UniProtKB/TrEMBL annotation, chain A:
InterPro entries in the record: ABC_BtuC-like, ABC_TroCD
Listed name of the protein: Zinc ABC transporter permease
Keyword Transport: yes
UniProt cross-references to Pfam families, sorted A to Z: ABC-3 (PF00950)
Any single GO BP term: transmembrane transport
Annotated source species: Litorivita pollutaquae
SUPFAM superfamilies: ABC transporter involved in vitamin B12 uptake, BtuC
Family of the protein in this entry: Belongs to the ABC-3 integral membrane protein family.
GO cellular component: ATP-binding cassette (ABC) transporter complex
Gene3D superfamilies: ABC transporter involved in vitamin B12 uptake, BtuC (1.10.3470.10)
Entry's localization field: Cell membrane
Membrane topology: Multi-pass membrane protein
Keywords attached to this entry: Cell membrane, Membrane, Transmembrane, Transmembrane helix, Transport
Transmembrane portions of the chain: 6-26, 38-57, 63-81, 93-111, 158-180, 192-211, 217-234, 246-270, 276-296
Automatic annotation (TrEMBL), chain B:
A Pfam family recorded for this sequence: ABC_tran
Family membership: Belongs to the ABC transporter superfamily.
ABC transporter domain mapped to chain residues: 20-252
Gene Ontology biological process terms from the UniProt entry: zinc ion transport
Presence of the UniProt keyword Magnesium in the record: no
UniProt-listed InterPro entries: AAA+_ATPase (IPR003593), ABC_transporter-like_ATP-bd (IPR003439), ABC_transporter-like_CS (IPR017871), Metal_Ion_Import_ABC (IPR050153), P-loop_NTPase (IPR027417)
Stretches the record annotates as Disordered: 264-289
Name used for this protein in its record: Manganese ABC transporter ATP-binding protein
Organism, scientific name: Litorivita pollutaquae
CDD domains in alphabetical order: ABC_Metallic_Cations
Gene Ontology molecular-function annotations: ATP binding; ATP hydrolysis activity
Lineage: superkingdom: Bacteria
The UniProt record lists the keyword Chloroplast: no
Protein keywords: ATP-binding, Ion transport, Nucleotide-binding, Transport, Zinc, Zinc transport
Length: 309, 289
């Protein structure tokens, strides 16, 4: 594929997909180790009603209202989960499941009831985003990367996702040691003076920021898959935290790139003349990587690993 | 100062001189208090066992003193100052079962966690730090396991790794939560040897303990608790059948006192002992339903 074709049509979707996958998989490592993987799932679901309400209030699809709406929805979700857990005396996993599916469904209903025909905010967009449409029509080849004129036409999602990825990397790098200690042994971490509650809250907040930014670009399917699949697959490749995170990054980018390529060209190779959803294919590839890691990963069978159930 | 009631004037000076002083500690996990208005004073250089029946609040008291669990009331002073200022001088060894040993870490990684207060968030591990972590591991006899994944260790080995992490902290006050629960006899010997060595260096050791038969052999001070304080003081003064009866109530079936030396109370068997300790000599922990 020549640069003249690749750069305008495939470069930006590939980068945005990869950045989104990495931004979600990074905090996902710690969520999975803390047995909080469901939180990533919950966040990506409750974000929808928050974004819809933000849109209804402001009448536009803009980053800040959406972020605030998503943040507000996440806060309400946390309070609701606590309320359901306490009043209903239900285990936290079930309370979470009830709250986030209900809020997601509420978001879908709100979307259908409201007039969003003027903007690209609909149920399909919410589920699998619009990765294929994030193209860079001002580019005419690799040389466009060095042209200010052309760079102005880059989809804003790319800059936004890149900025969020940098922020996520910054957070994880800065708090690496504290996150590792408090994820392994929270009681001990507190005796060191670490504020484990605030740290856990910050981890969830960073995950929420990654989820909202990724949701905007690539939809909720990728977000859910990327929080869990790359870290879970990476855990089966190594017994060291640093290497696990590195593997998860490799798997996240591999899923994004292979998923995008398979979605665009896979059906053609199989004799069909259409393409399929890139977001869906990326999530499927990440699931296949997880399956392969579970079958062949060097540390898939560990003493002390939790058994099913 | 071995009896239950300590005058309040003396209490003040106790706080200043004690390695650990807990005052008016109350913790609740729901409606009933788990620990109720407890005062505890650990003299410097003491080796103290915290004993009491299951659910008496032994571990909770320790965690509350360290700020690991929220308290309703109470203060903890370490070497005369509030806990928050003295964290660098404390090392805590939690119950082995309280963490997930499938965590992706090697033995040496866990021991290095004991260096956190020195390294901070971003401080670089130097050769001296690595040497200290390795030395701590050597003191518990686990040098050969430095690069093992922690999930591959036996229960006793895991307990030693936790102790090594505490040693790496180079603290002055060591607080251990059931360090002998479910460990093999060799590990129990190794741990007690390390704790004795700490005491010989002038450090203070406090351990939640459940094996009444070994209290006299291992410790010089004892604290009896059943929600509230029953007794505290040197073992010979406070570890009496009378106090044990008060702490354990009907659960302590008989308490035979051999005036010459040994107290051999008979307590019902505990689940966590089933896989653990071998009975020790005549001081047997035996089952009497």
């Amino acid at each position: 594929m020549s640069g003249a074709e690749f750069v305008p049509l495939s470069l930006t979707p590939l980068l945005i997909g990869s950045f989104a996958a990495m931004a979600c998989a990074l905090p996902g490592n710690f969520l999975v180790l803390r047995r909080q993987a469901l939180i990533g799932d919950a966040i990506s679901h409750v974000v929808l009603p928050g974004i819809v309400v933000a849109f209804l209030l402001t009448g536009m699809v803009a980053t800040w209202p959406m972020m605030l709406g998503a943040g507000g929805a996440a806060l309400i979700a946390v309070l609701l989960i606590e309320a359901v857990r306490r009043i209903g005396r239900i285990e936290p996993g079930a309370a979470m499941g009830v709250v986030f599916t209900t809020m997601f469904a509420g978001g879908v209903l709100l979307l259908e009831l409201s007039d969003t025909s003027s903007v690209h905010l609909d149920v399909e967009h919410a589920l699998y985003g619009n990765l294929e449409s994030l193209i860079w029509l001002d580019a005419f080849g690799w040389h466009s990367l060095f042209e200010a004129e052309a760079l102005r036409g880059v989809p804003p999602e790319l800059w936004r996702m890149a900025a969020v990825l940098v922020a996520v990397i910054g957070f994880i790098a800065l708090f690496w040691r504290a996150l590792a200690i408090s994820s392994f042994d929270e009681g001990f971490a507190r005796t060191l003076g670490l504020r484990t509650g605030a740290l856990g809250g910050a981890l969830v907040a960073v995950s929420a920021i990654a989820a909202v930014a990724a949701f905007d670009a690539v939809g909720s399917i990728i977000v859910i898959a990327m929080f869990i699949c790359p870290p879970a697959a990476a855990r089966m490749m190594t017994n060291q935290l640093g290497r696990q995170v590195a593997w998860s990054m490799v798997f996240a980018v591999t899923s994004a790139v292979l998923g995008y390529v398979f979605a665009g060209y896979g059906p053609l190779w199989l004799g069909f003349d259409n393409s399929v959803s890139a977001a869906g294919m990326i999530a499927v590839v990440s699931g296949i990587i997880l399956a392969l890691a579970a079958l062949f990963g060097p540390h898939r069978a560990r003493r002390g690993a939790p058994l099913a159930g | 100062m071995t009896q239950n009631d300590i005058p309040s004037m003396a209490q003040r000076s106790d706080i200043a001189t004690a390695a650990l002083a807990i005052r008016g500690m109350t913790v609740s996990y729901g409606e009933k208090p788990a620990v109720f208005s407890v005062d505890l004073t650990v003299p410097r250089g003491a080796m103290m066992a915290i004993i009491g029946p299951n659910g008496a609040g032994k571990s909770t008291l320790l965690k509350a003193a360290l700020g690991v669990v929220p308290t309703l009331s109470g203060e903890a002073y370490v070497f005369g100052k509030p806990l928050a200022q003295m964290r660098a001088r404390i090392a805590y060894v939690p119950q082995r079962a309280s963490v997930d040993w499938d965590f992706p870490a090697r033995v040496i990684d866990v021991v290095a966690m004991g260096l956190y207060r020195e390294l901070g968030l971003l401080g670089r591990m130097t050769g001296a730090h690595r040497a200290r972590a390795a030395e701590s591991l050597a003191r518990v006899g686990m040098s050969d396991f430095a690069h093992r994944q922690i999930g591959q260790l036996s229960g006793g080995q895991q307990q030693r790794v936790f102790l090594a992490r505490a040693l790496a902290q180079e603290a002055d006050l060591y607080l251990l939560d059931e360090p002998f629960a479910g460990v093999d006899a060799a590990t129990e010997k190794a741990i007690i040897a390390v704790l004795q060595a700490l005491k010989d260096q002038g450090k203070t050791v406090v351990a939640v303990h459940h094996d009444l038969a070994t209290v006299k052999d291992y410790f010089d001070h004892v604290f009896l608790i059943n929600k509230s304080r029953i007794a505290e003081g040197p073992v010979e003064a406070a570890f009496t059948p009378d106090n044990l009866q008060k702490a354990y109530g009907g659960r302590l079936v008989t308490a035979q006192l051999d005036p010459a030396s040994q107290i051999t109370p008979v307590v019902p068997p505990r689940k966590d002992l089933a896989s653990g300790l071998a009975p020790k000599g005549s001081g047997t922990v035996g089952g009497a339903g």
